[in-house]
Fold this protein.
Amino acid sequence: MSFAIWDFGGRSKIRPLWRHYFPNTHGLAWVVDSGDRGRIEGYEDSVYEELYRVLADDEMRGYHY
């Protein structure tokens, strides 16, 4: 068994590039640095929206999460 693990930053300029890593993806670990309250306060809804957008991508459909 082997794993390829990618750590993507969450900056909005990088997000459109995430989709290039979706083909042949068989799992997703979505991690939010909730310890940094200053960065997440006021953005809670956008974190969920971004996750749902990733999961709705054609390349990610059909996987269990």
About this structure: Helices lie at 37-40, 44-56. The radius of gyration is 13 Å.
